[in-house]
Amino acid sequence: MIARIWRGRTKEEDGDRYVEYIEETGIPGQRSTAGNLASMILRRSTGDEAEFLVFSLWESWDSIRAFAGEKPEIAVYYPEDGEYLLEFEPEVRHFQVAAAALDSGLEL
Fold it and tell me: What is the CATH number of domain 2-96?
């Protein structure tokens, strides 16, 4: 299992709308890709800014490539990201999941 982690920042006042936007674009894009096991949006306030991590779990590199393309380390952006993001990080980070304890029915 592989974890894929993307980071982004918006103005704090744009944070709620950006969460909605990710829920409309990035999360469905990930979840509709075969081999995506989970996707979540993490958010924290840093004063005037909101910081986001989109954390997803994948079965394999092939499943990540099906979502992200042939260079899976390159971040995937959507058309309106520029209306919210303060900068575009060019790469995402990947980690092999070394251990996990997951509840199969876990929901927010």
Answer: 3.30.70.100
